């Protein structure tokens, strides 16, 4: 079996040997974009190179970029534990051409690596193209010899990428792997496409147009390439698994969690172990990159993820704080590729322990309140917003944690009621704050983030500048 660590190395070596600079992953907190909450795609550290603000000595680069998608509009947090393919933290393998090679070579590289270097069977692969991109359609036929019914034209924004309202944009091509007998969803483009049978493994972006105020105004003189492939998804494929959570890295983390809780990852407990393993990675990597839990901004996203994992640890019956005891397993798996993890290990463990001790003080009372408040509710009902707010305010339950807790029972949460209760409390707090003479920068930032609703670059699906805020 090829390990995840070997797959990462093999990807970087392939592109390194084809003239790409092998670049270290940038931190999860983007240094070049204060409006972006976390680095969430491999191209983020290269944004200024694509727009021409910065130049690099070599016009090609490759990286395995740490990414977090756990906030903003395209938020994968709610998928974790429930789909085979989503994580809050994942690594995006990418190759980039800054005005150097374009479509033909990008498709050739992707196809060569997948089918020749890694030996994937051609008949398990499909490609999507943007509906008007005849050039890409023909290239897939010519280079890969894919039959026409395995090159799917998609007309949605999913297959058109833009950096914002102004700047480079262009069509995408997504490569899917057909996991065959796991018939949970339909082929891409079909109504039930968001299933798990056909899993998107690699996204190629062809930056070829220039946009001004959301309108295409011309072609780029030197088109560029940006690609992203989820390491965990390709690891699943190469390890003969359908599910990211059955790959070597996740198996090791889930085994550690099973052993410390003495609960097997089966039945209802399976999702809890998955959530714990996933959130262990995102929280540890965020801590290693200097994010600390707090009640606003990035720190609050971190705290929400932590608490969610901690509730699942509690669900598994953990009597004592669990998360910090899983860190050694993570360092064993990923510490060689990411030395910052090992360096930050004491900080990660202390922070997780302190947070879990603190949260456990109110956790069982919160759960009691939640149980009482939902005793009479059933599928299709909604928990009143004020109760969700009380859970948040008194018991430290982030909104999404309450949602997650009720999801299995089909009970929703009244978001409007929650927001109204929150707004009321904020107004009261603000009235009390007036006159202290201090500029509450982070509070302002938090407010803006809430108002705009998105503090995340939305991967390859963003088509408006707003989505990037
Ligand atoms: P999906 O449609 O499956 O949510 P996406 O189109 O949102 O994926 P992209 O923004 O194109 O994903 O990111 C490039 C690649 O990164 C994807 O092809 C996939 O392999 C991987 N990826 C994206 N989101 C996640 C995630 N939450 N967890 C793991 N891998 C991911
Ligand atoms: Mg997505
Ligand atoms: Mg997609
Ligand atoms: Mg995609």
Described by strand count, sense and barrel closure, the largest sheet is: 9 strands, mixed
What is the number of strand segments?
11
Total of helices: 14
Radius of gyration: 23 Å
Q: Helicity, in percent?
A: 40-55%
**What fraction of the residues are assigned to beta strands by DSSP?**
15-25%
Structural class: alpha/beta
Distinct small-molecule ligands in the complex:
adenosine-5'-triphosphate, magnesium ion
Instruction: Look at the structure and give the mean pLDDT.
Output: 89
Instruction: State the end-to-end distance.
Output: 41 Å
Question: What string gives the helices and strands in order?
Answer: HEHEEHEHEEEEEHHHHHHEHHEHH
Unreliable residue runs: 183-187, 438-446, 448-469
Multimeric state:
single chain
Net shape: globular
Overview of this protein structure:
Helix content is 43%, strand content 17%. Residues 183-187, 438-446 and 448-469 have low confidence and may be disordered. Strand 4 (125-130), helix 4 and strand 5 (151-154) form a beta-alpha-beta unit. Helix 7 (269-288) runs antiparallel to helix 8 (297-315) and helix 8 (297-315) packs across helix 10 (339-374). The longest helix is centred in the C-terminal third of the chain and has 36 residues, at 339-374. By secondary structure, it is α/β, with parallel strands linked by helices. The strands form 2 sheets. Strands 1, 2, 3, 4, 5, 6, 7, 8 and 9 form a 9-stranded mixed sheet that branches. It has a two-stranded parallel ribbon with strand order 10-11. One magnesium ion binds at residues 158, 174, 200.
